[in-house]
Amino acid sequence: MSDQIMIRMFGGFSLFVNNECFDQVIAKSKKGMSLLQYLILKNNAVILNYKLIEVLWPNEESTNPENALKTLISRFRAILNTCSPGLGNCIAASRGGYHFQLLPGMTVDLFEFEDLAKTIENQPELNEGTNELYQQIITLYTGDLLAGNDQDDWVISRSVMLHGQYMKMVYAYLTLLKKAERYEEIIQNCRFALETDPFDERLHLELMQALVKTNRNNEALMQYKHVTNMHFRYLGVKPPEGIQEFYKQIIQAGDTLDMNIDAIREELKEYGDVHGAFECEYAVFREIYNMQMRNLERLGSTMYIAMIMITSIDGEPLSPLKLDEIMKGLSDVLKAHLRKGDTITHFSPSQYAMLLPTVSMDSGHMVMERVKRFFYQKFPNSNVMFSYRIGPLSSNINTMKKQMENEQGKNAARLTAMEKRVSMPTDENN
Questions:
Q1: Which range is least confidently modeled, 92-101, 318-327, 368-377?
Q2: CA distance linking residue 23 with residue 2, whole number of Å
Q3: Of 233, 243, 311, 362, which is least packed with CB atoms within 10 Å of its CB?
Q4: Could you tell me the domains of the chain?
């Protein structure tokens, strides 16, 4: 067989003959494709007929399963032969079963990946040879095993194992690149690997660290905001603790200031006509919180903390897009109608936390009611509920969050007796 055959298993299943894709041709027989995929995963092992019947026709009864298997293989071999003469021979009969046979001129990305993984295992240093091997591995792994196909058990277990093996090699490669201080390559490879695993904490941290090392602090900050928004939108949680903590390194990175008070004052001051509350990432909010706690202990004064929760009136979860729109609008309201000395942060996908200095409990409630009024003016027909809690700064944020969730459950029970359409709902906890 003179044709060059490429079979791709990562990121989906594809067959190329002389760089021409034949996916639509082989897709005429889905069970034939499943048979070929299963045999490839078992490599040279002979799979007995009864096992193939169990895999291809699970929970199905047939009067003559052996004949059905032979008919399937005969027809699928014929389909493969239309792609390239003799290609059907890759499904070879042997001792009461079948196995996959690697033909001359044929490559399978899975086999190449596994061979490279064995070659590069436990490489102690980075040189031209090992660097090229790592690059080949990263290029080969274009996605999870047979991604997009119906995921049978025999696919899922192997896919998880291969993904873990790939990430282990990526981490090892990044470690060697860090030792060599090759930060541009770290950035490039992290971004490539994140296309495969966009929520991997270590990849995001390595990428942000490399961006800071190359004085691209703004890009590091953009990456932080991207991963934060991604966790809020798709997982409904804050990013991992390590990523939150790294935010402080990003904002502290930069050129050394001249030891001159005027230069430092100029560097630190806010630019433009600044109005309203100060919004910051949660990592900075927590530091401000701790600083205020120390001041309160020293001065013997008090400060209040408030939390706002946005939920739907009918108790159903808000769609990510709608929640994102509502929370951005709430941010605008808070910054416009709170004071300069107030600090706010997006605490969770549906919550904002804020520090309110120089208020009492009564005046704090007045502030929150004013914010609530402006919120409903901005979203008059949004079918959402604005709930809040306010308490002394010594209260624990997470305790307040649980109290709000319990209160929300009570509110939902009360609302079952109310009409669905209300313009500005009230809640007893306010």
A1: 318-327
A2: 20
A3: 362
A4: 5-108 (1.10.10.10), 111-252 (1.25.40.10), 278-415 (3.30.70.270)
**141-158 pLDDT, tens digit each:** 999 999 876 667 889 989
Closest CA to 330 of 306, 303, 294: 306
CB contact set of 18 (below 8 Å; sequence gap of 6+): 3, 4
- Cβ atoms of residues 393 and 292 within 8 Å: yes
The model's pTM is 0.64
Q: Is the pLDDT assigned to residue 326 strictly greater than 70?
A: yes
Higher pLDDT, 271 or 61: 61
Tokens in use for 382? Answer: 């949004």
Q: Any residues with CB less than 8 A from the CB of 428 and at least 6 apart, and which?
A: 410, 411, 414
- pLDDT level of residue 406 (50, 70, 90 thresholds): low
* pLDDT exceeds 50 at position 429: no
Count the helices and strands in the chain (H runs, E runs).
Answer: 16, 12
Quote the tokens at residue 8: 């791709």
Name the token pair of 213. 């090392």
Cα separation values, 242 from 200, 204, 218, Å: 12, 10, 19
Structure tokens at 95: 């001792």
